[in-house]
Amino acid sequence: MVTSTEKRKIKVKEDIVAEIEIPEKITIKFENNILAISGPKGNIKKNFEKMPVTLTIDSNKTIIKPFGKRKKDLAITNTIKSVIRNMITGVLNGYTYKLHIVFSHFPISVKISDKQISIENFIGERAPRVANIVGDCKVSVEGEDLIIKGPSLEDVSQTAANVEIGTKIRDKDARVFLDGLYVYSKEKGI
User: From the CB of residue 27, how many other CB atoms can be counted at a distance below 10 Å?
Assistant: First the structure.
């Protein structure tokens, strides 16, 4: 027969701890709940103020320890671990998203100015559609492709999403009107 104290001992789980190795080319700082990572391709800062974890940095490791021991805390720990890995990959290699410009009748022209991408003559519209560039992304037009590059995966992917959403066709049959800019390639490396 199992006593109630033994049942409590069985329910108590081990502490959840995740470690990430830090490559030599990268410098990492954690001050005031802001993680700053810098490397050959750029700098990235991320605020971890609202995350229920403790981040500590040793000589070549980042240690993530959640406040609790539940399944939810393990999920939060793994999410933060993947965010930090993406940041490390970004400052080492960078990220590139390629979007293809598709049109059937009205030729689309794409222009980049400051922090905005202007899509002109989209399905014959007179007013240009505008998408915002997020963060330190570098955007260029090469032939029929729009190329977005940068060290932060979040910024690059959000800029690509802004362009796709900006060219969404409403009130028409999507099977017939295929015009727009669509992501066709997601790559590591700038």
Answer: 12
Residue 67, CA distances (Å) to 10, 62, 70, 74, 113 in order: 20, 16, 9, 10, 45
- pLDDT tens for each residue of 130-157: 999 999 999 999 999 999 999 999 999 9
C-alpha to C-alpha distance for 66 and 73, rounded to whole angstroms:
6
92: which residues sit within 8 A by CB, 6+ positions away?
23, 25, 26, 39, 40, 41
pLDDT one-digit tens code per residue, 37-68: 999 999 999 999 999 999 999 888 999 999 98
